[in-house]
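[job 4471] stage=fold_predict status=RUNNING
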Amino acid sequence: MSYASGVGEDSDDARLPIAEFAFPGPLRDRLVDAILRGEKVSTTSLAAEYELSEPMPEPGQRFAVVDSDGRRVAVIEVTDVVVVPLGAVDLAHCVDEGEGHTTVEAWREAHEAFWRGDDVRAELGERVAVLDDATPVVLERFELVARGDSRDR
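[job 4471] inference complete, writing structure tokens
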């Protein structure tokens, strides 16, 4: 299958499962832009998110990345998935998230603020009541395999 043709609704990519980064709004827009620029090649989720609603991603799986308007703007392929304690996340992973963090501490502060936010708490409830070094997180690496600018369609 060729991904050079983009990610339009009429392409084979329209059947791919969706990858949503954060919630619709400014943060999602920044994350999607970082993916499209090739700066974001990793992400972190609470393991509790997968326990609740969806299966854990696996290397080789492809997902359509959606923007804040729900448009498919890219295709990514998962290259690695590992579950680790929050306290074991290293600087390389933090930097590869493409959000500009230069220390693990800054990365963790931003992620904990997001995970403690109203949107995540509405989804996970008490599963985010405690965030500490032992909290299981899913570290996912991916590569951009197709890009499509749905804003031009």
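[job 4471] summary: The first strand starts at residue 18 and ends at 19.
[job 4471] exit 0
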